[in-house]
Amino acid sequence: MLVVIGRNWRRLVIAAILLLAIVHAAELALVGAARAVIATVSGRLVPVYFVASADKKVAFTFESGFGRDRTAEILAVLKEHEVKATFFVSGKWVSDHPVVARQIVSDGHDLGNYTYSVPHPNSLSPSELKRELEKAHKALEEVTGRAPKVFRPPYGEYSNKVIEAARDLGYETVIWSIDSLDWRGAPPADIKDRVLGKIHKGAIVRFHVTGTHTVEALPSVITELKKQGYAIVPLSSLLLEGRYYIHPHTGEQRPIEVPGEAGRHEGRSPVDA
Q1: d(CA 232, CA 52)
Q2: Would you put residue 115 in left (φ > 0), alpha (ψ -120 to 50) or beta?
Q3: Residues 171-183: pLDDT tens digits?
Q4: What ranges in the chain are assigned the alpha helix state H?
Q5: How confident is the model over 81-90, as pLDDT tens digits?
Q6: Are 182 and 208 a contacting pair, CB within 8 Å?
Q7: Nearest Cα residue to 104 out of 136, 76, 132
Q8: Backbone angles phi, psi at 48, to 5 degrees
Q9: CB-based burial label for 185 (10 Å; 0-12, 13-18, 19+)
Q10: CA separation for the pair 134, 177 (Å, rounded)
């Protein structure tokens, strides 16, 4: 009798494992099919502009660029206010600023790929863009020991070709929903008013390490956002993982709900679908 029960128990365990494997495979197929349908219907791919979030979370992102580099000052402000952010840096910038690049990582911030030489992405062939990304990836990893997982196309310039090339290399392409316009040399008060006037759950805010008044604007922006109950987090803590898609008209990264999971994500988009 015990032998029979033991055999039946093993069969039940094996059957349960097989059932779980089938369910998991079905979920993966559903996610892939949903993304494919969305891309086919829209005819265009879009990067992540912002993220569906039920929580008051936003991400600050900083781009390397040309001009007076103020990354060290920005890091000091972020450290003083206990804020973590994401820095999109080029391979050339990392090679020129290795000490600061390592400080970004040691301070607990995220790194993103901004290509190697900051070209106009749409002017490159897929193979040329991949070489730019791979060269930058290698530079960032060699200098900081950190492998970037997100890509921002310079100048916010993208197309299906650009997004597909980045995706082939395992990158999520991310731009922004709020541009601080610090690159225009806007005064601190204008930067603050613009960011606070457009802020929303799941926002991705764009700053530059070469912004003329970015350093001076940051303390008041951070202080006010915290007063409003917002948490400022790096992209790794904002972007969705697993089952998601990117809305073809708004660029909102949304979860793909599978049967039985409806209602788990209730973030409201600031843009009507």
Answers
A1: 15
A2: left
A3: 999 999 999 999 9
A4: 2-42, 71-80, 91-96, 98-106, 126-144, 160-168, 188-198, 214-227
A5: 999 999 999 9
A6: yes
A7: 76
A8: -75, 125
A9: exposed
A10: 27
